[in-house]
Amino acid sequence: MAEVTKRYAVVTGGNKGIGLEICKQVASKGTMVVLTARDEKRGLEAVEKLKDLGLSGNVVFHQLDVADPASVASLVDFVKTQFGKVDILVNNAGIGGVKGDFEALRAAAFGKVNVSNEWAKAVLSDAGNLTEDKVDEILSQYMKDFKEGSLQGKGWPAFMSAYILSKAAMNAYTRILAKKYINFIINCVCPGFVKTDINFNSGIISVEEGAESPVRLALLPNNGPSGLFFVRKEESEF
After folding, report:
1. 118-125: long-range contacts (C-beta < 8 A, 24 or more apart)?
2. Where are the transmembrane segments (predicted)?
3. For domain 99-238, which architecture applies?
4. pLDDT per residue over 133-185, tens digit each?
5. Homologous superfamily (CATH) for 1-94
6. d(CA 76, CA 40)
7. Would the pTM of this model clear 0.85, i.e. be above it?
């Protein structure tokens, strides 16, 4: 019987919620998971929870703050030293920012991210000419209008505009990176409106259900689809 090559995964924001469940489901498939979190104590406690479930051989912890370049570099060095490679990266870490309109959040959680600024919508919809510079230009203009208090006048989303713009930008970067790195499988997914701390547990599906879709994409074979957006398990328009 041919020897199965060990696969290695990094999951950001893995100490609770969807991230922790992603770690659990991926590790249960035999993949070595590096569970990361900003808070070392919480991260180590999360790893112990998974070890108690019999996954001690497939999960380790490393501290990571995705907004801190030094922290990112430390993780890279750790992975290189310990495993020599990484096969799967799940970019799960995120913050809620502020309390917001839960109806808007619910709509966004079902993939209905509507960038109402017509200029931004046109740029983000033009997949053939989309570039990182163009996405950065949109975000810079949004921040300028935000600081000037002119979001409504410039046609930006009325509710949770920062959340919506961040999702739209992430989707755009997915398309750009998938085109740039053709030997990688790069997708983005909306897991649904999941009951987690980020929405004060106002969601309607469990973390187990919410994690299923990211895990499915993380474990795609080498010839799997790339550059796509999924709402749970269904391919969707950007």
Report:
1. 118/155, 120/156, 120/165, 120/168, 124/168, 124/171, 124/172, 124/238, 125/238
2. none
3. 3-Layer(aba) Sandwich (3.40)
4. 999 999 999 999 999 999 999 999 877 888 889 989 999 999 999 999 999 99
5. NAD(P)-binding Rossmann-like Domain (3.40.50.720)
6. 17
7. yes
Alpha carbon distances (Å) from 171 to 8, 17, 167? 24, 22, 6
Q: What is the predicted pLDDT for the residue at 77?
A: 98
Cα three-residue angle 180-182-185, rounded to 5 degrees: 110
Closest CA to 62 of 85, 38, 30: 38
Domain ranges of the chain: 1-94, 99-238
- Contact status, residue 168 vs residue 124, Cβ threshold 8 Å: yes
78 to 63, 137, 215: CA distances (angstroms): 10, 34, 23
- Distance between terminal CA atoms of the chain? 43
Strand partners, 62: 36
Would you call 183 exposed, middle or buried from its count of C-beta atoms within 10 A (0-12, 13-18, 19+)?
exposed
Tokens of 209: 């259900």
Average pLDDT in the 36-41 region? 98
The reply to whether domains 1-94 and 99-238 share a CATH topology is yes
> Tens digits of per-residue pLDDT, 70-107?
999 999 999 999 999 999 999 999 876 555 555 555 55
Q: What residues contact residue 175 under an 8 Å CB cut-off, 6+ apart?
A: 127, 130, 227, 238
Closest to 77 (Cα-Cα) out of 92, 59, 62:
62
DSSP 203: -
Which residues carry out catalysis? 163
